[in-house]
Specification:
By secondary structure, the protein is α+β, with helices and mostly antiparallel strands. The protein contains 9 helices and 13 strands.
């Protein structure tokens, strides 16, 4: 029979803890419950168990190291003869039978029971999705559907204020494990589609709003879109193109607060030439004011 130290892969100076760790390492790979039907693995496991049984017993290990017993646990011939001659009684040692098995670790500790229980309780795999949503749905919240690999559908609640790159985790909506254990999660990475006139900057919404020359000169109340619906915006008299007006609380709602909507006014002249406007401009003498003074 092979040297038990060699079988376990430990030095002769190994501590009991080293021997125990070596046995656990081998047994996790070779135990028949893990490899059903593997005759070679089963034989190897029995060999490992027998070596562990001998070396884990400090008295047997001492006697083996002293040459009194062999690797199977039987007394060597000289030792048997000496014992019989000395009248030590009948030899009750007999052939060594390994009782090291599935639960022979530190008495009450059952490493493999825990190991296999953990295997049975393995958590299921996560499912990964990418969901493209409308800009306004991201600002205002919505409920969407994603299609599962088996053809089913999963309802996804989109919270207000979500942005591109954020991931929603739906607990327990992933793959169910084959044995006992919790199912995985569904992870939905969100991508927010662009809007044709709104843009987002943090929690604020930006909008370029066209106004007429008359509205800029005389002032007006103009209908202005916001993510939550149109509102009336007051344009002050004598407003220049590029002026920014703020609509408080009309931005993105997130973490219990609302951003604002920033409206940049842009004066737009008629598409077609206006004879009356041209006649007025040609006869109009503006005040002594150079709008390009700051560029000089």
């Amino acid at each position: 029979m092979k040297d038990p130290y060699e079988i376990l892969g430990v030095e002769r100076t190994a501590t009991q803890d080293d021997i125990r760790k070596a046995y656990r390492r081998h047994a996790k790979k070779l135990h028949p419950d893990i490899n059903p039907g593997d005759k070679a693995g089963e034989a190897r496991f029995k060999e490992i168990s027998a070596a562990y049984e001998l070396l884990s017993d400090e008295e047997k290990r001492r006697r083996y190291d002293a040459g009194e017993i062999d690797a199977s646990g039987q007394e060597r011939p000289r030792q048997r003869y000496y014992r019989d001659f000395a009248g030590a009684g009948n030899d009750s040692a007999g052939a060594y039978q390994s009782s090291a098995g599935f639960a022979d670790f530190d008495g009450a500790e059952d490493l493999f029971a825990e190991f296999f229980s953990r295997q049975r309780r393995t958590r299921g795999a996560d499912l990964h999705f990418r969901l493209v949503i409308d800009f306004l749905d991201a600002v205002n919240s919505a409920t969407k559907q994603v299609t599962l690999p088996d053809g089913g559908a999963l309802s996804v609640s989109i919270p207000a204020g979500i942005d591109t790159g954020q991931v929603l985790r739906l607990k327990g909506k992933g793959v169910k494990p084959q044995g006992e254990g919790e199912p995985g999660d569904a992870l939905i990475e969100v991508a927010v589609d662009r809007h044709r006139f709104f843009t987002r900057e943090g929690d604020d919404i930006l909008l370029d709003l066209p106004i007429t020359l008359k509205e800029a000169v005389l002032g007006a109340r103009v209908r202005t879109p916001t993510p939550s619906g149109p509102v009336m915006l007051s344009v002050p008299k004598n407003t220049s193109s590029g002026r920014v007006l703020r609509l408080k609380g009309k931005g993105v709602q997130r973490a219990g607060r609302h951003g604002d909507q920033l409206v940049k006014l842009r004066i737009v002249l008629p598409d077609e030439p206006d004879a009356e406007l041209e006649a007025f401009a040609s006869s109009w003498t503006p005040a002594d004011d150079d709008p390009r003074r700051s560029l000089s």
